[in-house]
Amino acid sequence: MRPTTVFAVSAGFMLAALFTCPSALTADLNGAWASDLSVCNKVFTKVSGKMVFAPDSELYGGGLVVEGKRASGTFQKCTIRSMEDDGATVHVIAACSTGVMVSDLKLTVKITGDNQITLSPVGPVDTQTTYVRCPLQ
């Protein structure tokens, strides 16, 4: 599994946690999030009124889907274990499963604009990934 996919899924559950915590954010984080607005229709499709990953979505940067307390990427599903609001940043620990194994991931998320977030894994490598919310199709 590609590291960006693991990151995207973990980030999704962090977003779910933020949505359910009114003190952390007033924004609604539910929805489909992609790396760029121009790839939304290649990463997601709508099935029975729900946004799901399109076939080969990972070829276009992948993304994440947040629905309440659940978030998923193309290869993982995560559950929030803990969340700490630190002003503009929220620190999250999520238990993520690939279907084979479960691992804990630590992430931070920042709301950087309307329908835009930046996710960062906690660790020695400083990596940031920006996501935009895809409009409902």
Structural account:
The protein has helices spanning 3-19, 40-43, and strands spanning 31-34, 44-47, 50-53, 63-67, 70-72, 77-86, 89-97, 102-113, 116-121, 129-133. The protein has 137 residues and is α+β, with helices and mostly antiparallel strands. 36% of the residues are buried. The radius of gyration is 13 Å and the shape is globular. The chain has one domain (3-133). The longest helix has 17 residues, at 3-19.
Topology:
Layout: H1 3-19, E1 31-34, H2 40-43, E2 44-47, E3 50-53, E4 63-67, E5 70-72, E6 77-86, E7 89-97, E8 102-113, E9 116-121, E10 129-133
Antiparallel strand pairs: 1-4, 1-10, 2-3, 4-5, 5-6, 6-7, 7-8, 8-9, 9-10
Q: TL;DR of this structure?
A:
With 137 residues, the protein is an alpha+beta fold. 15% of the residues lie in helices and 45% in strands.
Mean pLDDT metric: 78
Low-confidence stretches: 1-27
Radius of gyration over C-alpha positions, nearest whole angstrom: 13 Å
Helix amount, in percent? 10-25%
How far the N terminus sits from the C terminus, by CA atoms, comes to: 28 Å
β-strand number:
10
**Major β-sheet profile:** 8 strands, antiparallel, barrel
Q: Indicate how many domains the architecture comprises.
A: 1
Which structural class fits the helix and strand makeup?
alpha+beta
Strand line-up of the largest beta sheet: 1-4-5-6-7-8-9-10
Residue share in β-strands: over 45%
Name the overall outline: globular
